[in-house]
Amino acid sequence: MGSGLVENRVAIVTGAGQGIGLEIGRQLAIQGASVVLNDIEESLAQEGANSIRLSGGICIPRAGDSSDIAFIKSLVEETVLLFGKVDIAIANAGITLFGSFLDYPPQDFDRVMKVNLAGSFFLAQTVARQMKSQGTGGSILVMSSVTGHQAHQNLAAYGMSKAALEMMAKSLVIDLSPLGININAIAPGATLTERTGSDPEYEKVWSKITPMGRPASPRDIANAAVFLVSSEGRHITGQTLIIDGGWTSVSPPPY
Q: What pLDDT sits at residue 117?
């Protein structure tokens, strides 16, 4: 596509078959990147990549579990085989398992931590090793949440995982800056996606309690993501950008 913020760069986006991840992949492609689009569901990965290609972007689908270290390794290796390099990695894949703290099952806790934390950590590690070998630096972005800043009922484990991702981004500045790699986090608030849209009250409730008068769109989140991994954002690292229409400033609960 035409000249853009990420012209001629190669990006991996996990958990991107729909919603925020898909829109990030779309905006990266529109801005000139070649995108490897991952989702655990093959049909979603294929459909997402097809929609980006119909928009004129370069996008390759790759289905697989982004919390599996062996798959992460193969995803990065295949990206390099296809495009010769990796410049951008966005660890968007995540899972939300609600549950009361007093009854929260160990298997749910382990799954949340494996997908949200381990998947992001080892994608960043694997990509950073590749970027180091390339010698040209790069950008890594992890996806946090406002639940890493404000408590939500029945989301203790999820909120913990998201707060930990922000600390990971801050900590890895030490290791990645000498390699020319910047790393940041985005913390979306309420966002209208396929998942949240299944609740008929979601938009109404969050529009009422969000100072800006509406929940975010996936495009709101994607615009910020593209900026942070572009050449325009290269001196920003170790930071978390909250995108919530002002909700964390007042924090009324949605119940």
A: 98
Residue 3 resides in a domain: no
List 66, 120, 144, 158, catalytic entry: 158
Count how many residues are written for the chain: 255
Catalytic annotation present for 208: no
> In the structure, what pLDDT confidence band is assigned to residue 81 with cuts at 50, 70 and 90?
very high
Tokens representing residue 36 in the block: 């490897």
Query: Following CA atoms 132, 112, 238, 192 in sequence, which dihedral angle do they give, to the nearest 10 degrees?
Result: 110
Mark whether 255 is an active-site residue: no
Q: Give domain status of residue 172, yes or no.
A: yes
Q: Which position has the token pair 């913390």?
A: 187
Residue 89: enclosing H or E segment and its boundaries? strand 88-91
Active site residue 162: yes
Count structural domains, the chain.
1
In this structure, is residue 25 part of a structural domain? Answer: yes
Q: What is the b/e burial string over 155-183, where b = at least 16 CB atoms within 10 angstroms of the residue's CB?
A: bbbbbbbbbbbbebbbebbeebeebebbb
pLDDT at 197: 74
pLDDT of residue 3: 61
Catalytic residue, chosen from 34, 161, 162, 202, is 162
| CATH number assigned to the domain comprising residue 170 | 3.40.50.720
Of these residues, 120, 145, 161, 230, which one is catalytic? 145
Residues in a beta bridge with 58? 34
What is the tens place of the pLDDT at every residue in 150-164? 999 999 999 999 999
> Each residue of 8-53: pLDDT tens digit?
999 999 999 999 999 999 999 999 999 999 999 999 999 999 999 9
